[in-house]
Every structure is written in C-alpha cells, then in structure tokens.
Amino acid sequence: MKIAAGADHAGYAVKQAVVRRLRAQGHQVVDFGTDDGETSVDYPDIAEQVALSVLAHPDSRGVLVCGTGQGVAMAANGIVGIRAGVVADTYSAKMIRAHNDANVLCIGARVVGPGLARELLEAFLGTPFAGGRHAGRVQKLDALRRRTT
User: Fold this and answer.
1) Which of 44, 52, 89, 105 would give a disulfide with 75, using CB separation of 3.0 to 4.6 Å?
2) Terminal Cα distance for the chain, rounded
3) How many angstroms separate the most distant Cα atoms in the chain?
4) Is the predicted pLDDT of residue 149 greater than 80, yes or no?
C-alpha cells in the first residue's frame, strides 16, 4: 500500500519508527518530513502535503504525528476529502477505519511511544471500512465539509 507520512519536530522520532516498520513490511512510503527532531516546523504545512498525497492516490493512507496528534488532525481535516482521526488505543484505530472510513491516522508522540504507534498503525491499516449504515454517515461528513468550505 502507498502511505504518506509526515510529522513536525515533536513527532519526528515516532514517525521514523513507523516509517521503518512500514517499509520493512513492503509498503511504499512517501515521507514528507520533517527530517530532524530539532528544527521547528509548522505542522499545518506537513499535514497539507500528506493530505494532498492521500487525495491524489485514493487507495493510499496517511499517517501524521505531532506532539498530541490534535494539530495535524485539525490541519488535515481542513481539506475536503480527508477524514483524519487522532487515536491512542487500538480499538479507536480500528473504529475510525471501520465506521468513519478515515484515510489519515494522527498520533501524538507525547501521548504514545513508538511501540504503541506501530500497533495503532497496524490496527488502522488492517481494518477495512464496514460500509453499510456507516456509508451514509461518511457521505454526510463529506457533504458537510463541502458546504462549509
């Protein structure tokens, strides 16, 4: 699977661990940075790049990491067609895929460590969208975003 990854300086180490694992599993990873954990970067810029990559490749997914996961999620969700969710447990990682058809996983590096981040990503990537009654709700989410942007 093609996966777009990105992080700000706070999320750099966790992103690196996730990217290594994904590549070892044979995924095609496009890393949008940042390239170190010391230089301050603006998370909206990274989130935009990851989100646009996900939109350009409909069967792909994205993973974004910042200190809490909240900032990158807010930035990514500002783009029509992106459904990003912040998770810190595997149940939520599965549910944002199964019920919300999320295409971007957001992780807080100051909330979870690299090991749990890898588990969250595996739960996210391993869960298909359930469709059914959830499909109409996802369509309403997308329609709401289009009406208000």
Assistant:
1) 44
2) 30
3) 45
4) no
106/68 Cα distance (integer angstroms)? 9
- Other Cβ atoms closer than 10 A to 9: 21
Hey, where are the domains in the chain?
2-148
Helix, strand, coil percentages (3-state) for the chain, rounded to 5, are: 50, 15, 35
Is the pTM here over 0.90, yes or no?
A: yes
For residue 89, give both structure tokens.
């447990």
> What's the rounded mean pLDDT across residues 110-119?
96
Which residues are known catalytic residues? 66, 99
User: Quick check: 2 and 30 in contact, CB under 8 A?
Assistant: yes
| Residue where the block lists tokens 């790049």 | 49
Q: Which residue has the tokens 């910042």?
A: 66
Are the beta carbons of 69 and 85 closer than 8 angstroms? no
AA letter at 115:
G
Tokens 């979870």, residue located: 112
**Tokens representing 65?**
């990491």
